Amino acid sequence: MSIVMSATPGNVSFPVAAPILKTSGSFHIKPEWAVGDTRAHLPKWYVPAFFVVLVGSLALPSGRARIYTTMPIVLALVAMLPYHTEGTFKKDFDLGNLVLGWFLVYLSLVLTAPEKQFWKKDGRTLTPDQRQKELDSQPYLVKLAWSFGVWTNPRGIGWSHQVSGLRPAALAGETVCVKRWWGMVWHQFMRQVAHSGGLLLSRDMLKLPKGTSIARFIYLVGAFASTGFYHTIVTVYATGFRAGLNPCGDLQFFVLQAFGMFMEGWMIDLVVWSGHASNKQGWKTFGYIWWACWLGYSQLWYLDELRKAGLWDVDLKVLGYLGFSL
Questions:
Q1: What confidence tens digit (pLDDT) does each residue in 24-81 have?
Q2: Half-sphere exposure of 317 (CA within 13 A, CB side)
Q3: CA 45 to centroid of chain Cα atoms
């Protein structure tokens, strides 16, 4: 296996998979880590069965019995993944994202009381305890339908966990920024993963005082690092566990977003403090420029590493004069 060093913005080097060369008929050939992969394909029942188990798990009565009944099955299904492949980086990348995402959501739900957190908005002002009691008293099929709604609506549209002000893009007159961008890209369950990681690092481990600049910065680092670890696990699986522990630089990319968002917030506070925030149109234009420049700076090299690994079979040059290709 061959590992090469690739430079990220700021000249930070990290190990990545061996480069993939262009050949006739395709822009990619199998990288060295993919040659000789003898893992079997997953059985066709794997994904449907996994989803049925997940939906059925929440339909069971809340409590420890639900955990003891479903956890062994879910762990056994997750344990199957490393020993199987779908044959390409792209397919394994998609499958890894799906299964790991399902597993993390399952843990966040089954170890808590989802009946108290998730319900369709119906205009009633019931307490979370009343919601749980009402749902637990319903027939199994009713609760199964509720569980299906929870699993198939990660953004919570029309549900209690809907993100406040959720919309597909910024409205006219709103300033686009890095923070708003990630607010639109992340769905609600990924927000929970990031939020938990941020609190764990800033509040629980370092016990930083809430509201300070250092606490906000460490919170952002923890939040984006949690997301980075998630994506790193996926790419390690998608490269067959044979391209190192950091195949595409996922962790560096996501932690870099914390720096960008913190710097953005600091500059906004400075502008407001200086009294120069009245030019709404001017700052809106500047926001678009800043957003585009930051994403171009921080994303192109990361996307190019994913392309080299085989996520896209394209060779489209983007900003070639800056040394980037996509």
A1: 344 456 667 767 788 899 999 999 999 999 999 999 988 889 999 999 999 999 999 9
A2: 5
A3: 25
Place of tokens 């399902």: 102
Of 228, 233, 325, 230, the residue nearest 20 (C-alpha): 325
- Helix, strand, coil in percent for the chain, rounding step 5: 60, 5, 35
**Ranges assigned E (strand) in the chain:** 3-8, 12-17
Residue 78 near residue 104, CB atoms below 8 Å: no
Q: Which two tokens stand for residue 199?
A: 């609190």
pTM score:
0.72
Distances, alpha carbon 258 to alpha carbons 13, 58, 65, in Å: 19, 34, 40
Those residues whose C-beta lies under 8 Å from the C-beta of residue 212, and which sit 6 or more positions away, are: none
> CA 16, CA 1: separation in Å to the nearest integer?
11
Q: Is the dihedral of CA 205, 207, 212, 214 positive or negative?
A: negative
**What is the rounded distance in angstroms from the CA atom of residue 108 to the CA atom of residue 102?**
10
